Predict the 3D structure of the following.
Amino acid sequence: MGKEEKKNITIADVAEALGVSKTTVSRAISGKGRIGQETRDRVLKYIEEHDYKPNVIAKGLAQSKTYNLCVVMPGDYDVVDLTFFQECLFGIQEIAGIMEYDILLSICKNNDISSLERIISNRKVDGVILMRTFVEDRQIEYLQEKKVPFVTIGSSNYTGVIQIDHNHKSACKELTSIILMKGMKRIALIGGDENHVVTQSRLRGFREAYEKMGEVIDPTMLFLNLDNHVVIDKIVEEVLERKAECILCMDDAVCSRVLKKLREKHVKVPKDIRVASFYNSSVLENNVPSITSLSFDAKELGMVACKTVLDVIEGAEVETRTLLPYEVVLKESTK
Amino acid sequence: MGKEEKKNITIADVAEALGVSKTTVSRAISGKGRIGQETRDRVLKYIEEHDYKPNVIAKGLAQSKTYNLCVVMPGDYDVVDLTFFQECLFGIQEIAGIMEYDILLSICKNNDISSLERIISNRKVDGVILMRTFVEDRQIEYLQEKKVPFVTIGSSNYTGVIQIDHNHKSACKELTSIILMKGMKRIALIGGDENHVVTQSRLRGFREAYEKMGEVIDPTMLFLNLDNHVVIDKIVEEVLERKAECILCMDDAVCSRVLKKLREKHVKVPKDIRVASFYNSSVLENNVPSITSLSFDAKELGMVACKTVLDVIEGAEVETRTLLPYEVVLKESTK
DNA sequence: CTGAAAGCGCTTACAG
DNA sequence: CTGAAAGCGCTTACAG
């Protein structure tokens, strides 16, 4: 409509149009440095009217900043609880957006950090959020070595790591205690990769509950490091033979598979055996019966993590460890 | 260990160390412009040994490029099939990584494009991949107006849009035909937001199957635009009363809810009623009985979409519409 | 084949 | 309070 293809308007254009220097325009926009109120208003008015948008890349180059955050998501297919990471991502993105930051995604499959390395050495981000931690964690080692600001979602044993987590230990302790108090002593604990820090925390909570109740764990009822579905199926068989009263699942993916196996064998929950999961996600949402589990606010976790890494980037002091609250949600499966 | 905190080494440092100009170093690295073989080798050797990494941001500023792609993910919680988008994202990331591009994530809730707008007006990306299309699509309109290179995953009716999609129409037509051929005429079609292009395609396939088989659709058996679980539950009741022989679900989230309701009412699949879904994802993976559905390769879709948008960015000619193949997977639920 | 210089669009000491 | 100039780390006509 007569509109000509406009080149992007720059700070120089604004300066020229207003008969001031680029310095002045820059100051009016950033709010840094002394500048006359009237001058500032003129500049602000002009850029508003002409829809001027500063080039963030150029700004970044001058300031050695990118206004990007890297979020590292786990890329292992089956194990992952997608909903959790999704929700978390929403939280991160919400805060990041407010602070004018964007999210660069890195996908990490079993501790392979090549994608993260590329992003860091290309200087594409100002900080990193790790969505999952390993007991032995190459991402953490790499980031510490490179002195890149980062936080982890989930706990870590590495010293000096800023961590945002739910209180998994305490949550699992509580859920386990409740089950013990209901009189079920023969609990089978299934799932969980011991290389993940969260598994360690859950396990500790599980153990503490037994101690607190003066009960003793039957070590043959612990089934960790299950790497595939077939193994889970076999374990369910075994657990049934051993007359377990309750199956406690480390996460919902495992729980979902356990429930499938139980259905196939026509074992009724909760009549024949009780089931609970250390995690709640939409995977089990539509299950009949409804499944007792721990409830965590993943979005909140993401928001806090994002806020924290931004603080770190700006050099603020932050807590080394932030623990968010949880809920125990009792449902039909443990009635 | 005596190692001093090194500032990042730049192209100027390399040039000085080698006694050549920055121009020469730049050319050796980029491979553009004439340069002596011996000189190039010297430069390459030096940067290799000293672990020099070009600053992508600076390079981008000089070339008006970012080496970033924006991927727009749907942010509506319930409706979304996460696994699909996740897989797709993996595919995108895999190709992007190979081409030295990174992924900037934008989350779009019900056609709200503010996040995308920010990323575009901040010039943070060279191109965009839209993971879901709307019949009336503000993202598409915005990107076309701004002349930003982009492709859509899923089809679109806007002219000139580069689309990568599975052949949903044809897939749904085939699955519907099979069911009709099995002798089930009373099919209830459930779910699907008519604002999504994919719903339109599926519906068209459904209709064509009826036409092909010389059957007539009972319009009162179509239940679209279900926005919440309660509605689905009610519809299942209605469908049962109306003696439907098969429930066809537009996607797995809907199907999962339908199955839940059926279980609660102790209606057996496939004995009392058959069920199939126009989509396959891990949501239904552990269901007993296994569910007949259409199978699509989401990762492949992501890979092709990424490759295509990269081609568009580089000004290459690309197909306006690429349709990927599918599979019909018959399982127990329609036996 | 190689280099000096201008430019990408900002920021920020420094000087006035 | 304001501006000229240098700088962020690259690329790329242009000239030789």
Remarks:
- Residues 20-24, 27, 33-36, 39, 58, 60-64 of chain A lie near DNA strand D (CB under 10 Å from a C1').
- Residues 11-54 of chain A form one domain.
